[in-house]
Amino acid sequence: MPQTLIKSVFISMGGHRLFERDETFNYRSTHHLTTNGFYEFLNWFDERAWYPLGRIVGGTVYPGLMVTAGLIHYVLNLLHITVHIRDVCVFLAPVFSGLTSISTFLLTRELWNQGAGLLAACFIAIVPGYISRSVAGSLITKALPSLHCSLLTTYGSNQ
């Protein structure tokens, strides 16, 4: 997964950081979810979002990204790999980007041949719209885990 390493290059330049307001809100939501639990997350009123009005978070977000990051954090801690939830959030996009290339290769190899699978994996790795959403520190809900999961589901149904 060389593309995962390439997309993590920003981390070596500026440390672990989230770039935009959406990423920061998603990180705070994930942190609240892992700290207080899912029920509290659904009933959470965030005073810092949409200041000065605030925001009822549970009814206004799609929690899939937060739950995915929280589950990865939980599993890593179960395996005694102590990692901060911020680090999971920062590296979630490049990891799923690499997994998307693998699932694209598997699906295309199943439908056509190995050469086509390698070509498809290379193409998905360099799509500009996907690169901009899958660099380290990009914690947005647009197509990160969903593309990988849909490709993997399609591959699994063809087996």
From TrEMBL:
<keyword id="KW-0479">Metal-binding</keyword>
<dbReference type="GO" id="GO:0004579">
    <property type="term" value="F:dolichyl-diphosphooligosaccharide-protein glycotransferase activity"/>
</dbReference>
<comment type="similarity">
    <text>Belongs to the STT3 family.</text>
</comment>
<dbReference type="InterPro" id="IPR048307">
    <property type="entry name" value="STT3_N"/>
</dbReference>
<protein>
    <recommendedName>
        <fullName>dolichyl-diphosphooligosaccharide--protein glycotransferase</fullName>
        <ecNumber>2.4.99.18</ecNumber>
    </recommendedName>
</protein>
<dbReference type="InterPro" id="IPR003674">
    <property type="entry name" value="Oligo_trans_STT3"/>
</dbReference>
<dbReference type="GO" id="GO:0016020">
    <property type="term" value="C:membrane"/>
</dbReference>
<keyword id="KW-0472">Membrane</keyword>
<dbReference type="GO" id="GO:0043687">
    <property type="term" value="P:post-translational protein modification"/>
</dbReference>
<feature type="transmembrane region" description="Helical">
    <location>
        <begin position="56"/>
        <end position="76"/>
    </location>
</feature>
<keyword id="KW-0812">Transmembrane</keyword>
<comment type="pathway">
    <text>Protein modification; protein glycosylation.</text>
</comment>
<dbReference type="GO" id="GO:0046872">
    <property type="term" value="F:metal ion binding"/>
</dbReference>
<dbReference type="GO" id="GO:0012505">
    <property type="term" value="C:endomembrane system"/>
</dbReference>
<keyword id="KW-0460">Magnesium</keyword>
<feature type="transmembrane region" description="Helical">
    <location>
        <begin position="88"/>
        <end position="108"/>
    </location>
</feature>
<keyword id="KW-0464">Manganese</keyword>
<feature type="transmembrane region" description="Helical">
    <location>
        <begin position="114"/>
        <end position="132"/>
    </location>
</feature>
<keyword id="KW-1133">Transmembrane helix</keyword>
<keyword id="KW-0808">Transferase</keyword>
<dbReference type="Pfam" id="PF02516">
    <property type="entry name" value="STT3"/>
</dbReference>
<feature type="domain" description="Oligosaccharyl transferase STT3 N-terminal">
    <location>
        <begin position="18"/>
        <end position="139"/>
    </location>
</feature>
<dbReference type="GO" id="GO:0018279">
    <property type="term" value="P:protein N-linked glycosylation via asparagine"/>
</dbReference>
<keyword id="KW-0328">Glycosyltransferase</keyword>
